Amino acid sequence: MLSRLKGFQGQNGHGRFRLNGHCATSAATDHIIQVRQVVKTYHGSAGDFTALKGINLTVNRGEFVAIIGKSGCGKSTLINMITGIDRPSSGEVWVNGTAVHTLSEGEIAQWRGRELGVIFQFFQLLPTLTVMQNVMLPMDFCHTYPIPQRRERAMHLLDMVGLADVAHKLPSSVSGGQQQLAAIARALANDPPILAADEPTGNLDSATAEIIFQLFNQLVDEGKTILMVTHDPDKARRVTRVVTIADGEIIKSNSTAESAEVAEKNLPSHSPSRGEGNGLLLPLGGD
Length: 287
Ligand SMILES: Nc1ncnc2c1ncn2[C@@H]1O[C@H](COP(=O)(O)OP(=O)(O)OP(=O)(O)O)[C@@H](O)[C@H]1O
Ligand SMILES: [Mg+2]
Known about the structure:
Layout: E1 31-44, E2 47-60, E3 64-68, H1 75-83, E4 90-95, E5 98-99, H2 105-115, E6 116-119, H3 131-142, H4 147-160, H5 176-187, E7 194-198, H6 206-221, E8 225-229, H7 233-236, E9 241-246, E10 249-255, H8 256-266
Parallel strand pairs: 3-8, 3-9, 6-7, 7-8
Antiparallel strand pairs: 1-2, 1-4, 4-5, 9-10
The chain binds adenosine-5'-triphosphate and magnesium ion.
């Protein structure tokens, strides 16, 4: 059933929408993400707190990277630097040839809409729009596809993640797993080269989490680059690289061969994997 995802990419092609003046080169480098000496200091009433202490991270095109570490170590802060949701206090963030740290707020929103699909733990679908309208939103915002194609593309994406039947329902009337699949369809709407997910399975049961994880694996096979913050030891063992953060610093970055060993040491004890072989289109409980 996963094979139904094949051909999900749109016609726009990667890189066609980069903003003028911020594109280092039209030929995208294999280093699709480069975080250079990034420091992030929060200024609060209780004083300053430095959540990232000079992070350097390079992600190659096509990698599936898990970011792990204890609560409060800086995982979300790092993801937010890469997605442009927040800005570094110092240092540089380059994503697919764009110097994200130099973009204005308005530029960042457009850039993110085209270059990055962002997936959150609590889905963040707009509650008053149907599932399909949520998936159409990025296309409406960035004008990436002609208006007549947007509805068709949204339905195509929903069909591929097994949600065609609930396309016209409101998010509140489908299950959490279905909401996350809809959020992934929305993240894919503009065919971005990168997906960034902050604990995407953190609020889901293990069988549904497995479906989401298999979907991510399929997307990596199709050419996407994925960064995924996770607390799930089983998932972190099955990516191409594990980046371990502690106290605002990357303390390990291990590729496939070593990642199982690293995950073993840095995450809670292994629970037997469940749902192996589940298809994407397994019915997820909804109303
Ligand atoms: N807006 C903020 N103002 C002040 N401190 C913040 C802010 N956001 C995060 N922090 C602090 O920065 C540190 C890193 O936070 P972050 O959310 O990145 O951690 P995390 O690794 O994602 O944790 P979790 O696994 O619990 O999601 C924490 O100590 C947090 O309290
Ligand atoms: Mg977090």
